[in-house]
Fold each of these.
Amino acid sequence: MRRFSLRLTRPLTLAACLGLLPAALPQAQAADKIKIGFLSTLSGPGAALGVDIRDGFMLAIKLAGNKMGNLPVEVVMADDQQKADVGLQAATKLMQSDKVDLMTGMVFSNVLLPVVPQVLPSMVYISPNTGPAEFAGAKCNPNFFVSSWQNEDIPAAMGKYVSERGFKNVYLLGANYAGGRESITGFKRLYKGKIAAEIYTPLGQLDYASEIAAIAAAKPDALFVFLPGGMGINFIKQFAGSGLSGSVQLMLPGFSADEDTLKPTGNTLLGTFNSSHWAHDLPNEANKKFVAEFEKAYGRLPSLYAAQGYDTALMIDSAVTKVKGRIEDKDALRKALKAMDFASVRGPVKLNRNNYPIQDYYLRVVHRDAKGRITNRTMGKILEKHPDAFVAECKM
């Protein structure tokens, strides 16, 4: 990328030369392209999530003529393999060797939390997925933006719905990493009943025989689970095979009942309720275009992860447009990103002062649509214009 030089916007007048008038301030030239580092989980058990974010992100760029704010785009891809050490090495290369202008893409909190502190001193990072509490509150940072949600929010919406349904004894099962623990905490934040048990399993675990036996022994009336990627797929299959689904109502965050999970689990989740900030049947025009173009490009329905990747690209495009290509003016770029001046597939959304979204959260149910596909249908709104629980701690 051509580096910026300083120039005067107009010749100095005689008065300015004599010190009678101030000279015009120098301005940076617009860049000739934008270079984005896309670091994500593209292999391993969580790869489906990263692939969907990538596909949504790249679709938005393609539909914009491979430009952002009229600048040609170069996306440098890197795979963190869902490992923090690999992510750190890849991020260092993106910044130092590839010299990207900004970064995005990470899926999991266990990768993002050690990587982002190395990124933020020098550039903007936009999270298209995980939104950890650490950067939502006291450690909020002007270079850290979240286009998706705070980790607690989607589970919190399900906690509210479970309470409203009258379930009074819920068993909680989550993956033992930052995102998993925050998801369970989020459910508890708006759930008003009794907790039968709160169990965490290692990230990457695929056999849940002992956990299912413990659930059966506890005899809860409902079960809330957050197990991402292949973990959730395996658990759902094993839970259905155990016969417990007849006596224990399974309730899920949208992550665990989305397109990446529905296809491999078949009929298993039909009738299951889940919460999300997005669904492919939301009736706004931006969403209709996104869903149609995604199906055309990839031959499948988009997941919420793909929607987040798409919106992240639109967010960057709108910001680059606002700064007229002057992406090295970091103050202007941050202000433009904060504006969220684009038509989101979610409908109305804005950023709070901690750079996390304020948005609506919906109830969805898994059903078979008119084309015979097992997918989600929106049932209604659970939370409206919902801010995260940590913004009061942010001093920005």
Note: Residues 1-26 have pLDDT under 50 and may be disordered.
Amino acid sequence: MHDDSRLLELAIAQAREGLAEGGIPIGAALVGDDGTVLGVGHNRRVQLGSAIRHGETDALERAGRLPAAVYARSTMYTTLSPCHMCTGAILLYGIPRVVIGENRTFLGAEDLLRANGVEVVNLDSAECVQLMTDFIAANPALWNEDIGVED
């Protein structure tokens, strides 16, 4: 078994990078079953003017095209509970395990992941909670835009 806390640090570093770029502090890392980091990413909706570059989708994009067997033996690490879009990507590529930093500030589609046989592990990271709590307080309109909620 991988060291989930250590691997979540990859996603947290990405979240901090995104925040430093003026974006939303959510990061992700796709890691193979042997511990190989396949791709890391962070929310880049602001930076790229993108409708779909959340942390998880950015990590998938940056990992590039991979054989289905690689996805089927990987874990997605993400600082925040995956939204429905990112959950859909996780399910589409058959990623069997998701480790999240926290779901206090946003509860994504974890039930949908579980209903489709995905193992969901919540590390309830105080650092991840603080990153999002501070960001949401300072940028409520931007956060609402990111999750598709009207102001």
Note: The longest helix spans residues 4-20.
Amino acid sequence: MHIAIAGNIGSGKTTLTKMLAHRYGWTPRFEPVDNNPYLADFYADMPRWAFNTQIYFLNKRFAEVVEIAKCKETIIQDRTIFEDARIFAPNLHAQGMMSDRDFENYTDLFDLMISLVKLPDLMIYIRSTIPNLVAQIQKRGREFEKSIRIDYLQGLNDRYEAWISTYKGPLLIVDGDRLKFGNNPEDFKQVTDMIDAKLFGFFPLDEQE
């Protein structure tokens, strides 16, 4: 199976990916953030580096999806190719940080790629408000994320909500503000109970009574 976790910057995707991989014995695939040679430049000068950064992510994500399709293990993926194309690139274009020419080129490439892959067996979307995202970003203390603007995060959140409202595949929405799965075992159990119900048809005993 292919399980994917979607969510804005700071929503807890990586934390949840690690926890679910350990809980179910799934093989994790993490977002290639620290190795992206463009990311620090991008946060310092978004209009200059937006196209380069998004092409890097799209390339890595497509290669990953192709590998996952061939894999016999259950893979849990931290962020998806759909987010790059439906969230981040359109947001940069709308904010004037990616030119029409670059965005059209990017979109044509994505459309070709996406015609060759299928939707994940389950998409887990972590929904979070801006204050919660900001708190999480500050907590993890990545130097290159300190310059992220609130309006940039808000633009991403709006696009996430628009995208997820039209998503056609199997979907599970986790309330990232309410469920502190990284720190609270009971909250994490609520998440795994929902996953069990979606994937395996299992329900907690108190729901069966």
Note: The CA atoms of residues 93 and 101 lie 10 Å apart.
Amino acid sequence: MAATLVFAYTGHDAAGKSVKGRVDALTSGQVAARLNAQGIAPLSIVEAAPATGMRRSINIPGFSRGVRLKDLAILSRQFATMITAGLSLLRALRILTEQTESKPLAAVLALVRDDVEAGQAISESLAKHPLAFPPIMINMVRAGETGGFLDAALNSIAENFEKEVKLRGTIKSAMTYPVVVLSMSVVAVMVMLIFIVPIFQDMFAGLGGALPLPTQMLVSMSHSMVYVVPIGLVLGIAFALWWRRNKNTDRVRRALDPLRLKVPVFGPLQTKIAVARFSRNFANMLGAGVPILQALKIVGETSGNWAIENALIQVAEGVRRGQSVSEPLQEFPIFPAMVTQMIAVGEDAGTLELMLDKIADFYDQEVHTATEQLTAMIEPLLIAFLGVVIGGMVIALYLPIFSIASMIK
């Protein structure tokens, strides 16, 4: 089979606007046929040399910016609007490729557009890029494509991603203040131990006499910073690299994900987030016409927690044996009784999708309330922690001065 080549082209579109770009094809004639099908009159088509030297894009592993969920939400909403307005898939993809502000997404969309232009289904092309497009998006597009309601499926995807972005924003805004304050306190303690304590130590050495026990402990900690800081940085970088590579492996997820749901204070919040995500994704998959067994599998993969993914695998096995969704779901304490009861009512009444939407909305509000309460609880605890740590260090530094003053009297 002949290898495809990269051709660079320039031409004019139907409005007379100058356009240029690159296309993968076997021959220049194939490129010309594609351009004519898009309404572009080609002026020149030449084989492009591979980018070298300074023209080659540089991608550093771990530091390249991927496709964000917010970009996918905007893409889905705009794509649905264009399909509803009667634009062809190729023209819609071309406009989206040119208009999106995300360079990684634009690069992937250009590949998708070429595949669609070559006669491939859009869902098949999206499935080639699992790092850019999540499974729920690929399967809902496939269902909409098969059933002839692609615009409705894209609108459902957009609503799903928009709510997920809002949920993530709520959690991020609630945790920003505690993380910043805690980071500043760690930096302040390290600055005092590295720079301030040695100054007081030299002053105390000139005065003579034995230092109080708290001051001795502070001086010892200051000396240890010479070793602790470099070792801590090396271990921190090593752990970050290991975590980035192994955090999604089954062995790590099987060990850590159930623990996340049991951590005091944060565990219930994680559970509510997981239930909200499960309900919303499940509702959207059913609304798009995805078969229930396939929907359970995909929802499990996109849940973000191994415990829920494992539970849904067993729920799918129960459904395959003829049980309803709510029956095996009741065996897992991850899902609150209210959730399983509402799902059972929805199954009996034939309104499962509606019930799942109601559950998702309820738990979205629960997450919002829980994050506000968590922030209100963490703030005074952080202030007390800072007062104890910084105040204790200051007192330990001034204890020798108080001792000398009492001796002088």
Note: Strands lie at 5-12, 18-25, 41-47.
